[in-house]
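Appendix B. Extra example for self-study. Work through it before the problem class; the solution is given directly after the inputs so you can check yourself.
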Amino acid sequence: MTERPVAGLKVIVDMNLCESHGQCVFAAPQVFAFDEDDILVYEPNPDVSQYKKVAAAAAACPVRAIRVEHGTEGDAPADGPESSR
Amino acid sequence: MNTQAMRVVVVGASLAGLNTVRALRDEGHTGPITLVGEEPYGPYDRPPLSKEFLTSDAGHESLSLADTSALGLTELYGRRALHLEPRERTVHLDDGHVVPYDGLVIATGAGARSWPAPRPAAGVHTIRTLDDATALRHDLRGARRRILVVGGGFIGSEAAATVRELGHDVLLAHQGPAPLHRPMGEDAAFFVAELHRAAGVSLLSFATLTALHGQQRVTSVTLNDTHRVGADTAVLALGATPCTEWLTHSGLQLDRGLVTDAHARAVGADGRPHHRVVGAGDVTRFPHPHTARLLSLGHWSHAVEQARTAARTLLNPYAPAVYRPVASFWSSQYGVRFRAVGLPMEADRARTLELDLERRRLEVAYYRDGRLVGAVTANRAGRIAQYREQLADDLTAMASA
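Solution. Structure tokens for the complete assembly:
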């Protein structure tokens, strides 16, 4: 049996774009937070139960720095909410 | 009627207009959508216009909010809505077009308050549209000059900071005791004033513009009827007025904006909401549990979130969505990042938890009748989420009470 991607969520933030607006922290506080210097820290592989919140976070980002990939078993990473825009 | 076949017309190719369209498509609406915009551009991002757009050479494409081609729209740009016939369900455009609708989204935003008296032909600017900012940017090129900024709101304060960073001499004239005093209160305004002073911007408090002078180009202005100040360029940031002129005879309730209910529906003169006419963004005034008056918000997130409500309400007229937002807004000046939630302007008391000029950090909480209504931080983004959560919980509790 060949190796397949594990089902789950992948969150990618372009830190060159991020301006720490915090909209993602509001939308998905279990995934996004700030450190003491206002730099965004986040869980790159959150639990799938966070999908809706993470998608809302991506949609709320004013600089569109967040990409979400919803990988399902056997599939290539599926389109995140960004790609339908 | 079947909402899938509904013809939707969105007036305003704005952030709110675009996000209504997106939400309609996300919610599965496949019917025709027409997006009408007065400016010759598709939806673009306005916050950079008073900031990095002024210091860059980037073209208008850099501000584009979306590739609209995937949304399946009829896009009519460079055309202004002249009036609305709600009985016939048509929007009349300035090129003679009459656009019929089954569902209408009013997202015409707000315009820069204009100067009502005569003014010189050149050197006087407002900052609202891409063309405004492009013209100002052109005027700011080259050698050091005297730039007067009038207005102590966010646009005025941000513009003063940006122009100063370009190396010009800047005088910021504003009506209150300090810039941003009205939206953020005393301590936050003091903090902002200190940022300006440290950067070498001159501040003139309690100043009202009373005249602009110059034959062709502005040469000076008069403040408070008597105080004459020389200027090579004047930036007028006198506030925004909602674009509702085209709705004057529509029968919709107008009160310094389009009055919408908690479901983003336009309210008729008889006080009853329209089921097929919704509003979103800067143009609306709407009820909010944290204030007794109707609220108008010029914030980015308000435009996005009210648009979502408007779309859902349009598609589900018998189970309309509710708009009860925790407001959220931000500003950037001299690299200091301001983050705010709630309605600080509604407060009767402010509590300052941190004001550190050296590290350029600020945290202020705002209360009304002892209840938290908002918070502002500067370079303390990590502190803002807790306030936002508290405000959200409070709104939820009020809704179920």
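Self-check: The interface with chain A takes residues 22, 25-26, 45, 47, 66-67, 70, 300-301, 304, 326, 328, 330, 332, 337, 339, 379-382, 384-385, 388-389 of chain B (CB under 8 Å). If your reasoning did not lead you there, revisit section 3.
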